[in-house]
Amino acid sequence: MVTHEASFFALPCATGSAGNRSVVPIRDYAIIGNCHGVGLVSRYGSVDWCTLTRFDGAPVCWRLLDATLGGYFEIRPTKSAHATRRYLQDTNVLQTTFSTDQGGIDLTDFMPIRAAASGVCLEAATLQTEARLVRIVEVTRGEVELQIQFEPGASGLFPAVDGSGASNCEAVLSSDCGLSGTWVSGTLRLGAGDRCCFVLSTQPVDPCSVADAGQLLDATISYWQKWVGRSRYDGPYHAAVHRSALLLKLLTYEPTGAIVAAPTTSLPEEIGGTRNWDYRFCWLRDSRLVLSALATLGYHEDASRFCDFQRARCSSAPPELQILTGIDGSAALTEKTLDHVSGYCGSRPVRIGNAASAQRQADIYGEVLEWLAVLRELTGRWDKVQLELVRRIANQVAGHWQEPDQGLWEMRCEPRHHIHSKLMSWVALDRALGLAGENSCWRHERDAILAAILVRGTHPRGHHLVHAFGFDVTDASLLLAPTLGIPLDRGLVSRTVAAVRAELACGDYVRRYRADDGLPGTEGAFLMCSFWLVDALLFSGEADQARLLFERLLDTGNDVGLYAEEIDPDTGDFLGNFPQGYTHLALINSAVNLSLYARGGNDALRGTLAQRLSRAMAGRPSATGCPVGDV
């Protein structure tokens, strides 16, 4: 089971330069946010990453990536303290409890969010958010001396990628205890029952308004709890599923419905290495997983808005779809390096933008048509615009599936004939036949793809699928093969899963691949791939193994139930951007698959994603007062 509280020993607050402080492990952060901006808060009471207005805006605090230049907002006891932290029940409100020999405090961190309209259907209400990060200190016993330190990041050194051209975000700290300004350093001695409020925002806040922060807290708690209350998940893993759903909602950019892959950039896949990428964008590949996860849990409005965002991008795009865009739909994501930023633990370069936006990744077409098949299954609605999109994509796949690509893993080397891309090309044409009707060209090319996979994409001795044509190594993306509804021999699938485990598994963790990808250094194991292994085992008839692995993976999240992109199999340290939406999506979908199997056995898992999703939702009433609408 996931734990949501942990104890640790907090060292005294460092005085003077932020550079005097040790680097905080990625695992030791938690997230707060309001569907516009986010803050990463360390176990030790420091906000080390914060964007107030947009996920991709210029950060106010970025000590996460540079201890000297990055800036931070820290509240912590001046004496050594024992601490626990947790999210308040069914919310994204973080509470850290510090206990010293002299007294104890609760530090409550959140970014305000509330529904703008009252009514039965919370999801249909427009959100009201404020570009603020609020911290409330309450002394629960004795007397505590606190260090309060706000140092904004160096001006002009960490630009936004939101199209504004802004190179810094002006911020000011306001409080009801006399510690306010654009740079604050001081101590505060409080006794039992005392309470102080701090508001970090783009404009000064009146002290009386600061004192009303408790009302914002109540509204924020109410919003998150009502949102979770709409969940229709009825399986045994409520805590993990709802924490993952809360994260996905937090990572949703409310103005457009886009969901960022992660709220950070350049957290390294190898400490000291160069594999540092910007994930503050929306990937088209996420569409089917997001739709499946949100719709299964009952969040129809969120799923609908995400689908509208993705559908607009696809309908207006040329035949070659762009795999990721900005959260406002912008296509220009030019990758740049910030050579003056030291990076997390010296991991350079720090990047903004993402060059993968210009890559050809052929699997994307299957992802989009799988998503459209799910959409039609859920809504029963179909129009000429969607039909034309299906035809355009199917024709693109039929004419170009024999070309190499960079693949799911966005390799920065010469294009290859990735087997996963071929599998998804088969999916694209198969779903097109179901959505748009018979087409002899599509059917012929679909069958040709499968024949090519079986002839050129299998190991000559091991008789299992391989990474790409001409390779004899495997690839973790092959774990998806059993879930795609492709008519593959059961023995081939079982041998492929076994080969991936033998070659890429490190205990419960799975690396993506061992093939050369054109980059120096190494990386950790991808946590998403571990959940893919859960699904592969389940779909291959190893249900008990799948369930046990899933439950062990629940214990690998951090103390508040969050997951990074990767993990070091030897140390358990988190690597890569954090928290990672992909990992939490995979967790939700594995939990749903396990529940589906528990109710219907192997028969419940057969067929396409759309068919499984229909079974998963069968017999569940719609959420009271909320029409299903377009999703």
Automatic annotation (TrEMBL):
Pfam families: Glyco_hydro_15, TREH_N. The keyword Hydrolase applies. Residues 22-117 form the Trehalase-like N-terminal domain. The keyword Hydrolase applies. GO terms for biological process: carbohydrate metabolic process. Residues 236-590 form the GH15-like domain. Keywords: Hydrolase. GO terms for molecular function: hydrolase activity, hydrolyzing O-glycosyl compounds. InterPro entries: 6-hairpin_glycosidase_sf, 6hp_glycosidase-like_sf, GH15-like, Trehalase-like_N. This is Glycoside hydrolase family 15 protein.
